[in-house]
């Protein structure tokens, strides 16, 4: 916006608050699902979905391990930050192998020494702010910190 | 397969998406000697994040002059034109249709929506909503491949350099007519070199392929090409590239395109070939690392060995199996749903018919190509063989 363009004229696509509501259990506490028929565990959750392993439809909530190990890391320095994350650069993106074998992609925060964000480093899930949604409310979700 | 066409780079800004889609369709029919009335069905892939008109089947049919005949619409990201060719293959194989066209078009400047653009290809609920874009996906996959298999910057620079070499001999390539890059510059550890090792955007693009049953194909051309195609899925969530509980996928991880391997095995079985028979291959490579992973999944070399394949110049003319003679993502240009699969098929089509000019692979008889969508949760493999 400026004197020449006083109105906020850029139109953005945004996900509705309902989507945030539907995903909150997984975002807040890494709640996935376990197939009661074959025992396979999954994240993201497959609530109401069919198991790709045994093809039964018998998922129950399963809270994934909150600790794990970094498998690989890649800094987000490509200049295409996700909407709402522009002020958070550089971000330290990782894939974490949780202690129960589930893999998740997330970012490591509160990094004092970037060299410590490396394969093999132990991490723990924390619940933190992510960004503001279209209503202006803060969105919370899982992130990781070095242990 | 009897013909096909693809738009040149830098299509006019004035073209609407309808005109863009019509361009290769018309050109291919003209070259093959068919009229619109001869076409029984069009399978059309489009980019649903930039063409926001809902239910576009009637609109495409209207643009192509196909009404009232069917236009089957598919949307499967960059590999969508591969899925369209799958629909076309089945329409011919079933005996229901005599002549079918598979069409893909991408007009990414049609609708500006950064959120929808960035979210494409990710598991939106738990990646994009958590601030992870498809750019991040690609970067971390490449990093994992480097970590696991140890490809050097010089290795991937050689891949990109060879793609540029081919592109200077392909008038359809985006880099055609431009100066060759310097190998040492491509291998530099700088943000600029990193960018140059990735695909360049082709912008608005459309392509099509024309298929006919065997008898009719022989009437239309004295050099028909036999086309087979297969595709496979795997989980769209990046974490599930590890340890996914399905046979054929569980034993692989993020550094291996296991879905592509599954698709390739089915395509080879349908076509009745083995990897030893492949004379030329084209892969959809948004980064050189993806090219490495693709030729490994296609079976041109074992997993983790692409760097040796490249170092030994096996992808160059005269090598064991020339790869990306069309120019690859870095130099032909990334055409997304407009051409990322069909550009590979068309290049192999011209190679088999000895119509590839200075980049011609001698006596090419079997060509293979691959494309992917949504970060290799969808992989398509095509096989072409001489039909004469």
Compact summary:
The complex is a heterodimer of chains A (147) and B (388). Chain A is 8% helix and 38% strand.
| Sheet with most strands: strand arrangement of chain B | 1-5-4-2-3
How many discrete domains of chain B? Answer: 2
* Envelope shape of chain A: flat
Instruction: Supply Rg of chain B.
Output: 19 Å
User: N- to C-terminal separation of chain A?
Assistant: 43 Å
**Would you identify the regions of chain B where 5 or more consecutive residues have pLDDT less than 50?**
none
Q: What's the CATH class label of the domain at 65-147 in chain A?
A: Mainly Beta
Question: What is the CATH topology of the largest domain in chain B?
Answer: Peroxisomal Thiolase, Chain A, domain 1
Strand content of chain A: 35-45%
> Helical content of chain A, roughly?
under 10%
Q: What is the chains' assembly state?
A: heterodimer
Biggest sheet features of chain A: 5 strands, antiparallel
Strand order of the largest sheet of chain A: 6-5-4-7-8
Task: Please tell me about this protein's structure.
- The complex is a heterodimer of chains A (147) and B (388).
- Chain A has 147 residues and is mainly beta.
- Chain A has a domain at 65-147: Beta Barrel (OB fold (Dihydrolipoamide Acetyltransferase, E2P)).
- Chain A has 2 helices and 8 strands.
- Chain A has helices at residues 17-22, 24-29; strands at residues 31-35, 41-42, 59-63, 67-76, 91-98, 103-108, 122-132, 138-146.
- Chain A is flat and about 65 Å long.
- In chain A, 35% of the residues are buried.
- Chain B has 388 residues and is an alpha/beta fold.
- Chain B has 2 domains: 3-114, Peroxisomal Thiolase, Chain A, domain 1 (3-Layer(aba) Sandwich), CATH 3.40.47; 121-199 and 224-386, Peroxisomal Thiolase, Chain A, domain 1.
- In chain B, 36% of the residues lie in helices and 15% in strands.
- Chain B contains 14 helices and 9 strands.
- In chain B, the strands form 2 sheets. Chain B has a 5-stranded mixed β-sheet with strand order 1-5-4-2-3, sandwiched between helices. Chain B has a 4-stranded mixed β-sheet with strand order 6-9-8-7, sandwiched between helices.
- In chain B, helix 1 (17-32) packs across helix 2 (57-64) and helix 6 crosses helix 11.
- Chain B is globular, with a radius of gyration of 19 Å.
- In chain B, 60% of the residues are buried.
- The model of chain B has no long low-confidence stretch (mean pLDDT 94).
- The chains are: A mainly beta (147), B alpha/beta (388).
- The A-B interface holds A 12-15, 19-20, 22-23, 26-27, 38, 40, 42-44, 52-53, 71-74, 76-78, 80-85, 88, 91, 93-95, 97, 101-107, 119, 130-131, 139, 141-142 and B 113-116, 118, 123-133, 135-137, 139-140, 142-144, 147, 191, 235, 237-246, 254.
């Amino acid at each position: 916006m400026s004197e020449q363009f006083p109105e906020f004229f850029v139109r953005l696509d945004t996900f509705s608050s309902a989507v945030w509501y539907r995903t909150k259990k997984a975002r807040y506490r890494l709640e996935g699902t376990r197939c009661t028929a074959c025992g396979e565990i999954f994240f993201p959750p497959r609530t109401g979905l069919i198991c790709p392993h045994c093809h039964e439809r018998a998922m129950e909530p399963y809270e994934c391990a909150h600790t794990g190990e970094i498998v690989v890391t890649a800094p987000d320095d490509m200049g295409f930050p996700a909407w709402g994350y522009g002020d958070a650069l550089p971000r330290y993106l990782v894939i974490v192998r949780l202690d129960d074998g589930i893999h998740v992609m997330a970012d490591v925060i509160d990094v004092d020494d970037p060299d410590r964000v490396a394969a093999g480093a132990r991490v723990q899930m924390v619940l933190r702010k992510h960004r503001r949604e279209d209503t202006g409310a803060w969105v919370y979700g899982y992130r990781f910190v070095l242990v | 397969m009897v013909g096909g066409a693809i738009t040149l780079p830098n299509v006019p800004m004035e073209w609407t998406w309808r005109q863009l889609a019509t361009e290769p369709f018309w050109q291919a029919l003209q070259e093959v000697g068919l009229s619109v009335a001869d076409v029984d069905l069009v399978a059309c892939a489009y980019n649903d994040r930039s063409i926001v008109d809902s239910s576009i089947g009637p609109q495409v049919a209207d643009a192509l002059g196909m009404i009232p005949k069917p236009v089957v619409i598919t949307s499967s990201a960059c590999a969508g034109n591969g899925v369209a060719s799958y629909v076309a293959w089945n329409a011919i194989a079933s005996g229901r249709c005599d002549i079918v066209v598979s069409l893909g078009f991408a007009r990414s400047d049609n609708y500006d929506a950064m959120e929808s653009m960035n979210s494409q290809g990710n598991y939106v609920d738990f990646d994009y909503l958590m601030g992870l874009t498809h750019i991040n996906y690609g970067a971390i996959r490449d990093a994992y491949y480097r970590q696991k298999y140890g490809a050097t910057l010089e290795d991937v620079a050689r891949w990109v350099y060879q793609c540029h070499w081919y592109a200077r001999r392909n008038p359809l390539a985006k880099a055609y007519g431009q100066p060759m890059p310097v190998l040492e510059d491509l291998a530099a550890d700088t943000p600029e070199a990193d960018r140059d090792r990735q695909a360049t955007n082709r912008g608005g693009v459309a392509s099509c392929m024309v298929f006919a049953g065997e008898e009719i194909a022989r009437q239309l051309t004295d050099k028909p090409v036999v086309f087979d195609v297969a595709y496979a899925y795997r989980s769209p969530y990046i974490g599930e590239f590890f340890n996914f509980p399905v046979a054929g996928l569980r034993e692989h991880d993020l550094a291996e395109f296991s879905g592509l391997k599954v698709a390739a095995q089915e395509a080879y079985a349908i076509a009745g070939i083995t990897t030893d028979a492949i004379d030329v291959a084209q892969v959809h490579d948004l980064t050189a690392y993806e090219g490495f992973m693709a030729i490994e999944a296609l079976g041109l070399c074992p997993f983790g060995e692409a760097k040796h394949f490249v170092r030994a110049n096996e992808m160059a003319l005269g090598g064991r199996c020339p790869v990306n003679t069309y120019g690859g993502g870095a130099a032909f240009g990334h055409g997304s749903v407009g051409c990322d699969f069909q550009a590979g098929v068309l290049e192999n089509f011209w190679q088999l018919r000895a119509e590839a000019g200075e980049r011609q692979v001698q006596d090419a008889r079997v060509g293979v190509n691959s494309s992917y969508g949504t970060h290799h949760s969808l992989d398509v493999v095509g096989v072409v063989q001489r039909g004469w």
